[in-house]
Amino acid sequence: MSDSLPKTVFHVDMDAFFVSVEELFDPSLKGKAVVVGGQRNERGVVSAASYEARKFGVHSALPLRTAARLCPHAIFVDGHPERYREYSQKVYAVLGRFSPKVEMASIDEAYLDMTGTERLHGPPLRAAHALHAAIQRETQLNCSIGIATSRLVAKVSSDQAKPNGVLWVLPGQEARFLAPLEVRKIPGVGKVLEKSLHDLGIYKVGDLAALEESFLDERFGEWGLALAGKARGLDAGGWFDSEIGAAGQSKSISHEHTFNQDTADAEQLESTLARLSEMVCRRLREHGLHARTVQLKLRYKDFSTITRARSLPRATQVDGEILEQVRALFRANWKPGAQVRLLGVHASSFEAAEGQLGLLDGRKHQRWQQALSAADRLRDKYGEDAVSLATGLKGGFRERTHENPAGLPGKGPKNG
DNA sequence: TCTGGGGTCCTAGGACCC
DNA sequence: TCTGGGGTCCTAGGACCC
Q1: What integer is the mean pLDDT of A366-384?
Q2: Please, which residues bridge with residue A311 across strands?
Q3: Tens digits of per-residue pLDDT, A103-138?
Q4: Separation of CA A413 and C1' B10 in angstroms?
Q5: A52 is catalytic
Q6: Is strand C within 7 Å of residue A164 (CB)?
């Protein structure tokens, strides 16, 4: 980057976000061991755990059944995505008053470029405390705030500030702040990279920073160089290097479903594909997008997973066209009888719209889209099952599984 | 212990083109 | 004749994040 004045970056991270939101809706959960993500006997993993539950070793991504074993007295709660979106938006509204350059990095964390806001909000610590108080007051939720000269260090410092804290890493102190931390604390260093680093005797970020760049380059290529920069606190390469608030259009839309029980029932599998295709297309239309590449994901009983993709000659957002591709991929790759655990439908390679359609073809296409958008509005009003469109494609299109589609809370029967 | 769902980014090989 | 080199697109898989 340039050698202009150092930036001031805030990273705001909500504390135990899903759990905290659930507590607002059910105050009796407060202070208890709470696990959000599903019931104790369900397939699936923990989305969030209260600090009380964490004392027993429960953490996000842990299988629910394991969590139930580690913490038998925990209260298990289904997730409510719409509640989390609502509170995420409340947080976003507060953030916007502190800086015009805000970027939500996920549903519960955001970056703010606070460079040059001193006259308005005072020095960084004062601004951070004001922000912290405003979020508390307006959402009744706690957060932690990291302040630094880069996104990377701000993120690491908000993590060190948890829970409910503010931590400022002074300009020039980045490397010293990072040095004693485990390499795993660097965003982008996961299980696998951590292991390779450990195998080389590298445990702390300081060990990493002390290495020759040429060594990291040889060992890990481009990634190694970026890693060297990160160890020194720089937003070296990739996403971290982009300007805050400049995030572009999303690049893919997907839906997937894990069956409560593995199945080899062709009808059930194909009706699930139809439902997933509809969900994907619906979101394409909501965002005004047309996808050229369609991908099927197939996970078997033994957890082995394949993906098969196909690119279309022209982009589409029509259910039937996507489903046709997905179904062809499915029929070409699924061996009848093989037990399936998960199915997924993924759309990517977005284009603004169709280009050079023949007039007639284009008209027909357009009418389809109008019909589908109208159907979407009806579904919004009267519920998911209110509308179905004939597609001309045969085979259990409107069949439904008896399971609750993930991400559609409150629909369908739940165990327990 | 038995492993969700929604994303992003990277790598690597083959096709194809110049 | 005895094997170029770069660019781009496509597909498959996997690491990683929340």
Answers
A1: 69
A2: A293
A3: 999 999 999 999 999 999 999 999 999 999 999 999
A4: 40
A5: no
A6: no
User: Topology of A176-241 in CATH?
Assistant: DNA polymerase; domain 1 (1.10.150)
A407 contact to strand C (CB, 7 A limit): no
Question: pLDDT, tens digit, for every residue of A290-349?
Answer: 999 999 999 999 999 999 999 999 999 999 999 999 999 999 999 999 999 999 999 999
Contact between A254 and A345 under an 8 Å Cβ cutoff? The reply is yes
| pTM for the structure as a whole | 0.86
A204 touches strand C (CB under 7 A): no
Q: What CATH number belongs to A17-81?
A: 3.40.1170.60
Which of A22, A52, A109, A403 is catalytic? The answer is A109
Residues A359/A314, Cβ–Cβ less than 8 Å: no
Q: Whole-number Å distance, CA A108 to C1' B16?
A: 44
Residue A389, judged by CB atoms within 10 A of its CB (0-12, 13-18, 19+), counts as middle
A2-15+82-173 placed in CATH 3.30.70.270: yes
- Which residues contact residue A303 at a Cβ distance below 8 angstroms, ignoring those fewer than 6 apart? A341
